[in-house]
Write a structure and sequence with these properties.
alpha/beta, seven-stranded mixed beta sheet, two-stranded antiparallel sheet
């Protein structure tokens, strides 16, 4: 699933009743954005429900689906998207279906309460997982055989789990980063940004970094990068403009983004060029 490739990755999204619209969108919207920004179909998805009926969301909006979930042999990654009242869907039939699907699926992901359904089907035994912060203590007490960690999302072998809507976006960005690289993942993340906190902006934090927690000097460095994509500065000049040493600036980028400054700089420049090619008629 995480191989670097331009081939289309097809995924199945199993949405349960009383899922929030935001949670469901957090799975497929980053994939849609990756397709639009890249100018090619990198991802496709089927939306499924337990019985094939439209999914009734908490906003009283019915979401049409492509069909019912069937536990037949299938090689698509499977995302279980559930928000409220997951126990209503925790039937013996669903447990059996998920257990059967796990034999063939290369990856199964639990999105918010989808993690509980995976645990009930014994799909997470011996794995590191995360759940919504409100449920962590209860989940850990109920499933001592599962290692619960306080992370936004966790990828452990053939299992992925996320703790809510925004962490799920982070998880999907990580999939894009592993498959298509940092540049595209950064541009997708920027498609969902908004101004806040006096202009500081979230970019592409690592899985262990909270949104909005960036060092102000890092924010300043990114601003300078964005303003100088046509004539990039050296690391030393960038560090002087930011008020830190070059070595410390390296550490700030590695700690927050998981890449050194020159990789982030290059991604900004590549994305600026991509936008010009796709969105303008410039030579």
């Amino acid at each position: 699933m995480f191989e670097t490739a331009d081939q289309v990755l097809e995924v199945d999204i199993l949405a349960f009743p009383e899922t929030t619209v935001l949670l469901l969108a957090s799975v497929f919207e980053p994939l849609r954005a990756a397709n639009r920004i890249s100018g090619q179909t990198l991802y496709s998805w089927r939306l499924l429900s337990p019985d094939g009926a439209p999914v009734e969301t908490t906003a009283h909006i019915s979401i049409p689906v492509d069909g019912a979930f069937r536990p037949e042999r299938d090689s698509r990654p499977l995302f279980l998207v559930s928000s409220y009242n997951w126990r209503r869907n925790n039937t013996p039939q669903m447990k059996m279906a998920l257990s059967h699907a796990a034999r063939h699926r290369p990856m199964i992901a639990g999105v918010e309460s989808g993690t509980w359904l995976m645990a009930e089907a014994s799909l997470l035994d011996g794995h590191r997982v995360t759940v919504h912060w409100e449920d962590q203590e209860e989940f850990a007490a109920r499933y001592p055989q599962i290692d619960v960690v306080k992370e936004r999302f966790v990828i452990d072998r053939k299992r992925m789990t996320s703790g809510g809507s925004v962490p799920t976006i982070d998880m999907m960005l990580e999939i894009i980063r592993r498959r298509q690289g940092y540049s595209l993942a950064l541009e997708v993340s920027r498609a969902f940004l908004y101004e806040r906190d006096g202009g500081s902006r979230d970019l592409l934090p690592s899985s262990s970094s909270g949104l909005g927690s960036m060092d102000r000097r890092l924010v300043q460095a990114v601003r300078v990068m964005e303003e100088s994509v046509d004539q990039p500065l050296s690391l030393e000049r960038l560090a002087r403009r930011t008020g830190v040493s070059a070595r410390h600036l390296q550490s700030l980028f590695n700690d927050s983004f998981g890449v050194p400054p020159h990789v982030h700089y290059l991604a900004l420049r590549l994305n600026a060029a991509r936008r010009k090619v796709i969105e303008t008629r410039a030579s």
